[in-house]
Structure prediction request, 690 residues.
Amino acid sequence: MMLLNTFSLPVTEPTWIFLIVLVIILFAPILLGKLRIPHIIGMILAGVAIGEYGFNILERDSSFELFGKVGLFYIMFLAGLEMDLEDFRKNKIKGLVFGLLTFAIPMVLGVWSSVSILDYSMTTAILLASMYASHTLVAYPIVSRYGIARQRSVNITIGGTVITVTLALIILAVISGMYKGTSDGLYWLLLFFNVVMLGLIIIFCFPMLGRWFFRKYDDPVMQFVFVLAMVFLGGGLMSLAGMEGILGAFLVGIVLNPLIPRVSPLMNRLEFVGNALFIPYFLIGVGMIIDVRSLFAGGTALKVAVVMTVVATLSKWLAAFFTQKLFRMSRNERGMMFGLSNAQAAATLAAVLVGHEIIMENGERLLNDDVLNGTVVMILFTCVISSLATDYFGRKLAVEKPADDQPAGGVPGERILIPVANPDTVENLVNLALVIKDPGTGGDFVALNVISDAVSSSMHAADGKSGLEKAARIATAADVNVSMVSRYDMNIASGIVHTIKEYSVSEVVIGLHQKSGFLDSFFGNLTNNLLRRTYLEVLVARFVMPVNTVKNMVVVVPPRAEYEAGFKKWLIHVCRMSEQLDSKVTFISEKDTVEQLRAGCRQSGIGLSPKFEERERLSLQEEMSGKISPEDVLVIVSARGGSVSYDPALDRIPQCLAKNTSIGNFIILYPEQVDLEDMVSFSDPMGSGA
Prediction:
């Protein structure tokens, strides 16, 4: 009885506050998902229910202020981090036009409607219009589900998102800055100078600092904390400049984008922590300050909500319509652009919260409670409309897409084998496998430790177990299933070959053999025997720096490589690696092969802009002695003996690499061959391996 007497509303005990928030984060998506209400709306509605204007269960204390700030920065950081910069470069003209249209039309209609219909001041009207101009790709997972992520209309919308969100955030930052200092000429001059200088620091210094840190420290916790520190440092620098900190967080996301592959443990951790805690906490806090009852209590609240929703939706449709007409696109492409760009979420919430906190000279808020409540209604309807439109037109585009437009990526049931003989190379091998793997397939990895009967020892078994566990940790952190296999066999090569058959492996990623003596070969017997006994694609890799810090890829391709059975497959892997790492790629080969490489890159469906260099006669020795910086990776496409592209010069690759010690990072790629039964060599009947 005493326990009940001590319990009162609103709850103020930190333990119970955190528990209630966690329960909401857990169950709100489950309940509202059945109603097809987006999760972002579910969290906001839950905040309305538990807040002061709902059932008054929780008080919006300092914890919501702190986590709200973190969540707001996190939303904008992830928006920049998840941008496909290569798609933006590829469709930069169309994306620029659509971005300017989807910014300008909502601005014009937004200012007109706010001034003439809602009777707001010009400053309020401009900020409100910038909220209509920005949009969030809430419906993008639908595009991925239908396999149309490389469609022209999708790429244009992604490119336009960069433009319109950046411009909207600049308007927000400028208006916010007007109320942080004097508005004379000197203030604007200093504001411009500070923003440019600190912006250049973020753009040029942050990537260099990030590249240095990732090369020096591989501890996952340290990398995660480092990235968060960069986010808030960027936000803090923009705040010092007099702009809104969310612009700095968004900019940090863009500049760190090339260093954090979309399929990587670090990206998975960043998204997991943000989506599991920071962002939901922020959204619940937003809901707690909303008074839904005011929409039905008379006055202008309902009118504001209707005007905001209609103007935001109409302006985005007009932007898609004019873009369609300018570039002679289909009606379904227009519908896709409208569907993806109609949803208002992250930047809109940022703007309304910042504007709601600004107190003008007359004591009123720049964006009053009516606008705050109307924003929630607008977000709800635009997210629902966006999801329905994207789903409808996505199905149509998926059906009408011609067969040759289908991306050639991925092998159904893709399964990559990673031998883990050396624990020091495991991390780079797994990360290499992650960036060549098709994220759209349900494939997985096989981490293998082979204990040879000839050298069996407890120390080898312990090292192998350590390597398996390390590979599993890295891959599972990126949401990739891993089969850990430890087996005894008469030699390592035989163990790998047997595992390939038992687990239906599609590719092998193996580290460079460590020479055991002066007479030992560059590759070692293991690699040589493996190449003789399997037809699969094999990548022999050595990296002296983390894979995600690669800036350039130089791919040397022998003549007639296009006639190999695995030509398209390895080309897709190279293109995907370049895309995931956001690195530049240059293909070097003879004229006829270069033409096939161009066509293969176009057909791959992977958005990148490679360079091609033709040679009258390809000399591997000259290419390997060229300028390869420590931040580059040299990819040499080789061939097995007897294959159509085989040349005796390929046998000299190990000697050339051994002499040229300046090449620290390289991959020697052996394309997949026609599936043949294993052949026994009478000179090596046991297939002895290292």
